[in-house]
Amino acid sequence: MEAFNPSTIITDFSKGDIILGIDEAGRGPTLGPMVYACAYWDSKYDKDIRFKFKFDDSKKLKPETREKMYDEICKYPNLIKFETIIISPEYLSQEMLKRQKVSLNVISQNAAVELVLAAKRNGANITHIYVD
After folding, report:
1. What is the pTM of this model?
2. How far apart, in whole angstroms, are the C-alpha atoms of residue 37 and residue 84?
3. Cα gap 96→75, rounded to integer Å
């Protein structure tokens, strides 16, 4: 079996069985923005990618670990792609304080849907979705 070498892989995201994972981080409406992100890759490289990048719940990772992971992911755009949505505390407060209030759960769900749609617009053939 050939050794996993991410720099030599070119993924056709429109034809592979693409795995997409979503996570969020942030403080919410009173303490700062909420950041929603997804990363996606071809399922045939799933075990190798999980081993190399050591993906986990963002809350379990130190900020410097997350920064290093981001730098690593950016080195391999033909292997892993990602999308992000940043929701300001002002927007969160505005939605949650409306006459017809929008809960943080609904805002979170809408952000997750938008991430999936963004990946689809970029041609990803998503076959598996994991949401933290």
Report:
1. 0.88
2. 4
3. 38
Q: Three-state SS string across 66-107, please?
A: HHHHHHHHHCCCCCCEEEEEEECHHHHHHHHCCCCCCCHHHH
Asked whether 39 and 20 are in contact (CB, 8 A), the reply is yes
Taking the C-alpha atoms of residue 40 and residue 83, their distance in angstroms, rounded to an integer, is: 9
Edge-first strand listing for the sheet containing 18-28: 81-87, 32-42, 18-28, 126-131
Contact 81, 119 (CB under 8 A): yes
Given pLDDT bands bounded at 50, 70 and 90, which one contains residue 3? confident
Average pLDDT over residues 100-125: 95
pLDDT value at 115 more than 90:
yes
